[in-house]
Design brief:
Rossmann fold, 7-stranded parallel β-sheet, globular, binds nicotinamide-adenine-dinucleotide
Length: 329
């Protein structure tokens, strides 16, 4: 099987090349994203291997089908960037990596919380300049505060385990109750109560049609003054312009984002020499109480190795026409 590997970066290519010694696939690495403008590169490949910001809409899927591609292998869990109906109609099978390291994402989530709370990002800059003033660096004890976790799947649970260790009260919201979350002492509450009572709110649900902009003007209005919001899930879950208003009026005290609704043309590339035509992004990056990371919550050696192993295994199963639990259409 020959595979066109899109959005290739050295940190991803290395574990795939290493694990591919056990599979022997013929992989061609493309740094470009897969989108309408690059879909023609797929001519003659059996499969494409893609990541979160590759855009597999109906037009791209039509081009893939005409080029002879029969498999889309996602190197991620979320599949909101793939038109599954178009893939089904074109007879293209889609596989994903439902879980590779929930702990990697959870640890980054809590890293953002602690950095924002204790102003570590500011202290890092100050001490490099021999400025040891502590003014403006006062944080709060996480112990005894209330966390509101939206989504108690794999990553939500891993986050709850860490926050329980910090001694936080745990409020959660999810249409499906997890016995594991209950065993950790978490209480399932309606979203409105979570908004009202939580000091720190963290998103761990997928982006679906019915939860687009789940965090918006109306939801911020229900929250405590000075609430901390963390989004390591998907950018579209949070209305960034409404968040900026809520920062300006003091409702949001701090904001940690690993994902951003308009990240598609920004993230996973060095744009430091470019003029970025996105005023919302500029505003967000100017606030001292906002930290942005570029969709890196998954980025640990353990997670990358698991992504490579599971993706190549998915491809091998489909190549051999064996059942594959990770097939999503
Ligand atoms: P999961 O499928 O294990 O859990 C998702 C949970 O969300 C489920 O329990 C589901 O019932 C719940 N849910 C669905 N809709 C909801 C809603 N409207 N409100 C509350 N809960 C809802 O998924 P996971 O592995 O925990 O991943 C969660 C999300 O994290 C993924 O969808 C993905 O968007 C994101 N993610 C981000 C990164 C990163 O690097 N930043 C990496 C991996 C995953």
């Amino acid at each position: 099987m020959n595979i066109a590997f899109f959005s290739s970066q050295p940190y991803m290519q290395q574990p795939f090349a290493e694990h591919n010694r056990n599979y022997g696939f013929d992989i061609t690495w493309f740094e470009a994203r897969l989108e309408a403008q690059t879909a023609a590169l797929c001519q003659g490949f059996d499969a494409v291997c893609v990541f979160v910001n590759d855009k597999l809409d109906a037009e791209v899927i039509h081009t893939l089908a005409s080029a002879g591609v029969g498999i889309i292998a996602l190197r991620c869990a979320g599949y909101n960037n793939v038109d599954l109906e178009a893939a089904r109609a074109a007879g293209i099978r889609v596989v994903r990596v439902p879980a590779y390291s929930p702990e990697a994402v959870a640890e980054h989530t809590v890293g953002l919380m602690l950095t924002l709370n204790r102003h570590i990002h500011k202290a890092y800059q100050r001490t490099r300049d021999a400025n040891f003033s502590l003014n403006g660096l006062v944080g709060f004890n996480m112990h005894g505060k209330t966390a509101g976790i939206i989504g108690t799947g794999k990553i939500g649970l891993a986050t709850l385990r860490i926050l329980q260790g910090l001694g936080m009260n745990l409020l959660v919201h999810d249409p499906v109750e997890s016995p594991e979350a209950l065993a950790l002492g978490a209480r399932y509450v309606p979203l409105e109560q979570l908004f009202r009572e939580a000091d720190v709110i963290s998103l761990h649900c997928p982006l679906l049609h019915d939860n687009y902009h789940l965090l918006c003007r109306e939801s911020f209005a229900q929250m405590k003054d000075g609430v901390m919001i963390i989004n390591t899930s998907r950018g579209g879950l949070l209305n960034a312009l409404d968040a900026i208003d809520a920062i300006n009026n003091g409702r949001i005290g701090s904001l940690g984002l690993d994902v951003y609704e308009e990240e598609e043309n920004l993230f996973f590339a060095d744009n430091s020499g470019e003029i970025i035509h996105d005023d919302t992004f500029h505003l967000l990056s100017a606030y001292p109480n906002v930290i942005l990371t570029g969709h890196q919550a998954f980025l640990t050696h353990e997670a990358l190795a698991a992504i490579a192993r599971i993706t190549l295994d998915n491809l091998q199963r489909l190549a051999r026409n064996e059942p594959c639990d990770n097939q999503i259409n």
